[in-house]
């Protein structure tokens, strides 16, 4: 895994091999492997496709991970809005036990590993790894203070490896073909491929697997075919609502973790949302922060109060066309607090979104603050 350069496909892009090594290094009799299949980003259905279409690959990957880190038990945390994926995975687990690739003495070797399917609780924040662990334990799904990290103190206070479904889907291929072969795909520090989910506003929506290094322009124009309305694109968000907006003049930026971060954007989970020139930025900001205020777990103050404050600010903009210049200063202060003091990526993602709006669409917003 380390040689391959595989990085997490769930948003953070953390090196997978490093995460595996951290769990393997823990001297504990009980460890866990958790597959995060709680994709809640609007328009994203990558995990759903992988589970419904190639479920055995996820089971194989989790068993490999369990063997490497020294775990005998895994959990798949599946979004509750995916009943078909749930049914497919239940049947696949039965088949895996029947064929001897799960359970005691797998393939007649001295290795035991089993997987339990857990249906999600419906909250968006359950996609955050520590909130997900709380949910599996039957606790309130809210982010945990770190450190300690899940690799040391995770599920039921045991060392826990948590990987996104797409991350794990790469594991069997890497084991079969070798780390070097995987590393030859992609570019710079972003190896391999990324599955993207283009939303229904594109002329050709759907799932696409692209090599890292593919430009945003190639994705939205060559694959997506532009907008189905034929209108010019005003901006694109990759990775769901908690990520920065990419304006058209930056569409030649390659798909890569550092490359997108350098312009205030993110690879995220891979959902690609586009909007046209007639979209009001104020309405978009209001929509995102209304979503965020509703879905916040409420544990940390900046996220709990800040998201609602910004939502109310832009509700006034949408309803009246303007708000006070003093509130612009408040927007900057809340954004800074979200970025620096949020417990998890939910709050920091909101900050990235707000910063990108202020950076790239300042002229449109300026008329609102009077």
TrEMBL record:
Source domain of life: Bacteria
Transmembrane regions listed in the UniProt entry: none
InterPro entries: NADH-UbQ_OxRdtase_51kDa_CS, Nuo51_FMN-bd, Nuo51_FMN-bd_sf, Nuop51_4Fe4S-bd, Nuop51_4Fe4S-bd_sf
Family label: Belongs to the complex I 51 kDa subunit family.
Segments forming domain NADH-ubiquinone oxidoreductase 51kDa subunit iron-sulphur binding: 282-327
This protein's record includes keyword Metal-binding: yes
Keywords noted in UniProt: 4Fe-4S, Iron, Iron-sulfur, Metal-binding
PANTHER family associated with the record: NADH-QUINONE OXIDOREDUCTASE SUBUNIT F
SUPFAM superfamilies: Nqo1 FMN-binding domain-like, Nqo1 middle domain-like, Nqo1C-terminal domain-like
GO molecular function term, any single one: metal ion binding
Originating organism: Edaphobacter paludis
Protein name: NADH-ubiquinone oxidoreductase-F iron-sulfur binding region domain-containing protein
A Pfam family the protein falls into: NADH_4Fe-4S
Record carries keyword Iron: yes
PROSITE patterns documented for this protein: COMPLEX1_51K_2
